[in-house]
Amino acid sequence: MTPPANVPFGTWKSPITARMMTEGAVGIGGLKADGECLYWLESRPSEAGRTVLVRRSASGAVADLTPAPFNVRTRAHEYGGGALGVRKGVVVFANFADQRAYRLDEGADPCPITPEGPLRYADFDLDPSAGGAVCVREDHRNDGEPVNALVVLDLQGNGDEAHVVASGADFYAAPRFSPDGRQLAWLSWDHPNMPWDGTFLWVADIAADGALTNARQVAGGADISVFQPEWSPDGTLHFVDDSTGWWNLYRWRNGAREPLCPRQAEFGLPLWQFGMRSFGFLADGRLVCRVIEGGVGRLAVVTETRLETLPTPFSHPGLPQSLGGRLAVIGSSRSEPSRLSLWDPDTGAEEVLKRATETTVDPGYVSEAEAIEFPTAEGLSAHAFYYPPRNQHHAAAAGELPPLIVRSHGGPTGATNDSFTLAIQYWTSRGFAVVDVNYGGSTGFGRAYRERLYGRWGIVDVDDCVNAARFLADSGRADPNRLIIRGGSAGGYTTLAALAFRDTFRAGASLYGIGDLMALARDTHKFESRYLDRLIGPLPASEPVYRERSPVHHLDEFDCPIIFFQGLDDKVVPPNQAEAMVDALDAKGLPVAYLPFEGEGHGFRQAETIVRALEAELCFYGRVFGFTPADDIEPVPIRNL
């Protein structure tokens, strides 16, 4: 074996290229089991981000079901999710281009079943006879805020108006028929809550004419978050709520709410998208779930009081879906990319159906996550995953410490995990250290940790990212003079706030990041329109705080190079926010780069965009810190450098 070369960090030659992020790469989600068939969605960068419905039949044959240009994706809540429903071979899906719901039968072309117009549909559930479907409808036909409701679709219709069965709340999610079709469960919540703040779980009887009767609240409240109502095969309603301060499992039986295996662990998730799931049932009725403790997830079987870990090959499993005696699981490990597998919980046998990427990486280039806990402001501690530089053919120059990239995740109510991702290995295999921070406000650590951010967005998250960098620099694992922060969306805001209000970092990258909090509050969509009430404060009383925390109003405090990446079709964070900051920093004389992308929204989906953005970021750091990457990269125009 070639001995390690004494080569400066950042210049290491790596086989992990930006092109590998997209070549043969797919996003996998939306699992649905129907008898012995399994359906899922694949988001394909190679097809301009088109999302395709795929099915594995009972015989094991795998085939695409939705031809181009159909794109199975909804814009409800802007973040979408829940774009697919299926039962007894009948498929209902939302199409991105026109946002209409379509029915798809075996051997037939998709047929629209909702009218044309500014209506969006999501979170489909077909009744047990597959004669109708219930879903969330988001109605944009009137001026002002769109109106959300639960509606029933006529699957035999040809663009007919849906029948409203529940309305009056600001938001709805997760309508689910009981196995006998006699009851419907669903979630609702109202402004200013987000679904992780407080939701109501309802159950109603279904009358002969399809109307809902005897609706009653069975769980939740204004300050209790309920997640994923799900009926067991025997007709018992199960769900997750955080009334103890942790998202734990419960069931509703004989008119009473019963806890299952209570513990200080998270069995739920923040409901950013429709259709999110964390538990399901095996054919024998056993409940299988994903549980998160200390930010690390695992699959387990739940009994009345016990939690039995399943020895899966995944370090970060998700979306368990029962298919006979096996589980369909989308999971990853610390050393392998995500994959969709059929996994037998009794024998441990695994059948891989689809890999997120066919790319394989030699273990000699893989940096595995190390969970760290570090001290932060006010005597508290915070959590992160640290990745050291790793490349079997390179070692550092004598006495050199690696540049460190601090990653701040989006949301901000979200979390990062320890799963393998090429987007991190790209950096570590070139000689960068990476720390992926679960700052205060992240999920996976209980409600109290999540609520650290309330009223203090732009403070707690920034403190935790700063202190993660300092902790690693002080322990000799990062160069204190080459600390970088980067993030997208809300993580982009944390990045910009850290660069404006702290002197820790020497460079930054903002991907569709938020610079103006007042503009965000004014321009954003309904789902997030009151999100900042808790993160910052209610308007108009808190407007001075919004200005105080907005990086765009503190451009004189920026003092290091920044690169901005922005989708020109972004409806969540409009391009004018990035453009205003770029122009101001340019006028100030700071090194700044701006890469706008046509046809991209909030998050990049197209292959060429993903490749260009990653390579440009590497090129930018090389120019800023005076090293030359080993890669052949198209130069990035940097103003004032």
* CATH homologous superfamily label of the largest domain: Alpha/Beta hydrolase fold, catalytic domain
End-to-end CA span: 41 Å
Shape: globular
Strand arrangement across the biggest beta sheet: 30-31-34-33-35-36-37-38
| Biggest sheet details | 8 strands, mixed
- Spans where pLDDT lies below 50 across 5 or more residues: none
Task: Give the percentage of residues in beta strands.
Answer: 25-35%
Could you estimate the helical fraction of the residues in percent?
A: 10-25%
What's the CATH topology label of the largest domain? Answer: Rossmann fold
Structural class designation: alpha+beta
Please give a structural write-up:
The chain has 641 residues and is α+β, with helices and mostly antiparallel strands. It has three domains: 34-274, 7 Propeller (Methylamine Dehydrogenase, Chain H), CATH 2.130.10; 278-360; 361-625, Rossmann fold. The protein is built from nine helices and 38 strands. The strands form nine sheets. The chain has an eight-stranded mixed β-sheet with strand order 30-31-34-33-35-36-37-38, sandwiched between helices. Strands 2-3-4-5 form a four-stranded antiparallel β-sheet, with no helix packed on it. A hairpin with a 6-residue loop joins strand 8 (101-104) and strand 9. The protein is globular and about 75 Å long. It starts with a strand and ends in a 16-residue tail after the last helix. The mean pLDDT is 93.
